[in-house]
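for ur thesis appendix - Cation transporter. copy paste whatever u need, i formatted it the way the template wanted (i think)
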Amino acid sequence: MKDIPDDIRKTLDRAERLEWWSLGFLLSIIVVMYFAMGSSQAMKTAWIEDTLSLIPPILFLITRKIETKPPTRFYPYGFHRVGSLGFFLSATALSGMGAFLIYDSGSALLLREHPTIGNVQFLGLDVWLGWLMIAALIYSIIPPVILGHKKLPLAHKAMDKILHTDAQMNAADWKTGAAGIAGIVGIGFGFWWADAAAAGFIAIDILRDGLRAMRISVAELLDGAPRKLDSPDIHPLVDRLGQHLERNASGMTVKIRETGRFVRASVEPDSGRALPEDQARRIGGEDDAWRLIAVNRTLTQELPATGADRSEGSAAPD
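the 3d part is after this line
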């Protein structure tokens, strides 16, 4: 894609390779966890979380292919915001599944379900299934945690929210594994409630991540001001660009919104519609004039000719 700098393109290419590695490891983890799951609620919840972990890397790989497509008549601004849509879908899936798993584990506690972990034959030996579950959980922790820590700096550099959500989920997988192990050990000591409690802890963590991501993604889809990667707080770029552009456009208001990993700035009058209604009628016709509220143009040529100013001005045309 022409408007992505070479260093950002290389960062995204590296992230793409890591996501393929993630898919390979996650598929193997899902298979191992499925066969070791038994009747443990915590293992089932951890297995579902691992399955959900497939969504962000798949969406990242899909959006990487789509966002590079050139603008068309139907999509004149290009496909930069496909990442925003993918981020919203992954956040919705996380939130929905987190809520369901909280209900599932809560029901198990209320109904006082007593899970049992028996013995299995393994290499000719009679082995407690709990040891195999713990081994599976340890395997489910190590690859994602390593990959997650590798993805985080790439997500910050490329300002990619899907990649950042994926990296956070991977880097925090140790909590899922630790909760699952605690639940299994609790069953082994006769604490029937430990399994469902551990499942609830995992589910609450899933829901928390999903709701935080959903709050950020909805703001982006509603043309909200650019948010930070890891919180719904407004990104410092907004104040920096706004103050700079307002100095060079007196009597105007600067509105900055996010389109995927990019931002766009509109410079409009302080009050009223940005385009007078009579002008809108001349441009758009009588019937549709009310729909045309602004016509913007780039300000690059009107800004001071310093290198720093040019870079800020070109980052925010609409």
